[in-house]
Predict the structure of Signal peptide peptidase-like 3.
Amino acid sequence: MEETIEHHWFYMLLDTSRVLTIIISILLIVYGSFRALGLDTACKNDESETEQASNGSLFSGILDGFQTITTAQAIFLPVGASCSLLVMFFFFNTLQFFFALCTAVLATVAFSFLLLPVCQGLLNPCGKNTNNKISLGCCGRFTCAELMSLFFSAMLVMVWIVTGHWVLMDALAMGLCVSMIAYIRLPSLKISTLLLSGLLIYDVFWVFFSAYIFKANVMVKVATQQASNPMAYVANKLKLNSIINSSPQISLPGKLVFPSQEQGRFSMLGLGDIVMPGLLLCFVMRYDKYKKMHAASPETESKITYFHCSLIGYIVGLVTATVASEVYKAAQPALLYLVPFTLLPILLMAYLKGDLRKMWQDPFITNGFKSKFLEV
């Protein structure tokens, strides 16, 4: 009997859906963090060109406006997230077309950002100058690579709407993850701690305690409910019954979903469980680079960086959350495991290395000058 249980545990932990969830979430965080560093470097090395490119350009316009989370935003973000969750819980059926439309627009822009380096790589061998702008009148001016990535992204969103396939939904969710990690910034360890602690309480409450108040697990219901296909909405207005009947419901790309080897089972991880710890990992990666640039002697720098420490913690936390969900046979608030395993090792490591005071406040202020890339 014990041998059977051990084999069951081993099988469940090696299930392809769980393995893919862990691997993909790690890759998204690492890639998003490197894209953030790349954006910083591009802006610092060519600030004047960035300002010229920002006139009407979709991507450069975003590039010139990194969103840095302030103390007030870190405190009230869990409150705002709770309000949004309740709106989707009570009014999803009424506003599902609006939610689907907004999600489609955001996913198009986010996935085009994910595709942009690929399009730039495809155009460079063709002799195309990726910095040349094409004017589209009142829509603004765009590079060929931006237009190409936006076109392919829009096509992918259209196919997703038509088919509702989970693979396309996951692809759009990945674009959202990378974009948010690259463009949203945590300026200090203090704000990181406030934000992640508040989101931990938010996650625990809505997963474990919401059922006592609302007679249903609000977080799980919102995450798993499906919206009517926008095509069906349009077809209904045009009285096209054949299209209405053939249009599948769609799951909004607010999560990663991977079907399990077992029929009817799947692994699911919310984007917040990737993006929020990812913002912390991006912060410490930028701090590692900043510290290395300002180090008096590079040889004295430890080979184990804050990013390595937090990434290992994220992996351990994600595996722990996976095991907990299997033990209790119920949905788990992943941030309950991810936040302590990522934040506490960084705090301890910063204290031991003497960096805690500097990281707690804004570590990127040098000689009274605050980098443009960290302003709201």
